[in-house]
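Design a sequence for this backbone.
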């Protein structure tokens, strides 16, 4: 097949189960990160990836009720949530999200990491 006409096929697969695969705090992001994400500089950024993907809506609700954070990005099709706020608020929000998902909804969760 001619390289010009060659097509790349990407297959996205969702793994069954209820899990938080990333819970991370970027404590002091560079301004460029905020610009690339298209969100306001609020101090820190919190990142969550979840399955099933629709859990992103639940996580965003828990996070915004648990601490003074704003939703920077939420995608119910990929299970991605980005929040922003001061470092302590972002950490508190992620802690509450992982706690509720684990204790009340039976999710497998990861430890919250921080850079």
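Sequence:
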């Amino acid at each position: 097949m001619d390289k010009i006409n060659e097509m790349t096929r990407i297959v996205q697969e969702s793994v069954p189960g209820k899990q938080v695969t990333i819970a991370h705090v970027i404590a002091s992001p560079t301004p460029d990160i905020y610009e690339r994400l298209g969100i306001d500089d609020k101090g820190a950024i919190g990142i969550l990836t979840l399955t099933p993907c629709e859990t992103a809506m639940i996580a965003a609700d828990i996070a915004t009720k648990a601490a003074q954070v704003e939703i920077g990005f939420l995608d119910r099709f990929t299970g991605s949530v980005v929040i922003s706020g001061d470092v302590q608020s972002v950490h508190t929000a992620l802690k509450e999200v992982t706690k509720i998902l684990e204790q009340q909804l039976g999710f497998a969760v990861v430890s919250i990491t921080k850079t």
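The two ends are 45 Å apart (CA to CA).
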